[in-house]
Amino acid sequence: MLVGYARVSTQDQNPALQLDALKAAGCEKVFTDKASGAQRDRPELVAALSYMRSGDSLVVWKLDRLARSLPQLIETVATLEAQGIGFRSLTEAIDTTTAGGKLVFHVFGALAEFERSVIRERTRAGLKAARDRGRKGGRPPALSAADLAVAKALLRDPAITVDEVAGRLKVSPATLYRHLPGGRGGIGVQGETNAQEDHLD
């Protein structure tokens, strides 16, 4: 059984062209979504997949009606294949129930893996370059060494609370404690004047 799937991006777009093409191709039932291709939540596509059985084929007018990226397309077609469901795209003349169609998607899969490998290599190269320049990957620290020195100096005065120091450095008290394990005790100061600080210590 051929089951059609159509998608338009906005409420204003008319799916008539897609619906006519799908019916002309012999689709006995057609599901239509009105949603961006980037959205994962497409209820009519989910309904179509639930409706279909092994041996059926999902038919679309163009590949971009099913997915907006190569990885997303490969993932969706792989899901269909795992359920014994074929896939056809009318405009690109792709049919995974044929040897030629399967070959096309094997090539697509290889290209997607190549793209992922390139991204991984670029990420590793970027991190290495950052380390070579004396930096580590990820978010920069909220407090510099100079900030920590100021914080420690201020906290040696029992009259100054952690909240006041954090406010002066424009960070949260939790961030300050994260950079000063042990709180006041960690810098050799005994006692707290703030009940909240006692709790955090």
Question: SSE layout and pairings?
Answer:
Elements: E1 2-8, H1 16-24, E2 29-34, H2 43-51, E3 57-60, H3 70-82, E4 86-89, E5 94-95, H4 99-132, H5 145-155, H6 162-169, H7 173-179, H8 195-200
Parallel strand pairs: 1-2, 1-3, 3-4
Antiparallel strand pairs: 4-5
Helix pairs in contact: 3-4, 5-6
Your description of this structure?
- The structure is a single chain.
- This protein has 201 residues and is an alpha/beta fold.
- The protein folds into 2 domains: 2-98, 3-Layer(aba) Sandwich (Rossmann fold), CATH 3.40.50.1390; 145-200, no CATH class.
- Helices cover 48% and strands 11% of the residues.
- The chain is built from 8 helices and 5 strands; from the N terminus they run βαβαβαββααααα.
- The protein has helices spanning 16-24, 43-51, 70-82, 99-132, 145-155, 162-169, 173-179, 195-200, and strands at 2-8, 29-34, 57-60, 86-89, 94-95.
- It has a 5-stranded mixed β-sheet, sandwiched between helices.
- A hairpin with a 4-residue loop joins strand 4 (86-89) and strand 5.
- Helix 3 (70-82) packs across helix 4 (99-132) and helix 5 runs antiparallel to helix 6 (162-169).
- The longest helix has 34 residues, at 99-132.
- It is elongated, with a radius of gyration of 29 Å.
Q: Keyphrases for this structure?
A:
8 helices, 201 residues, disordered C terminus, single chain, 5-stranded mixed sheet, Rossmann fold, 2 domains, 11% strand, alpha/beta
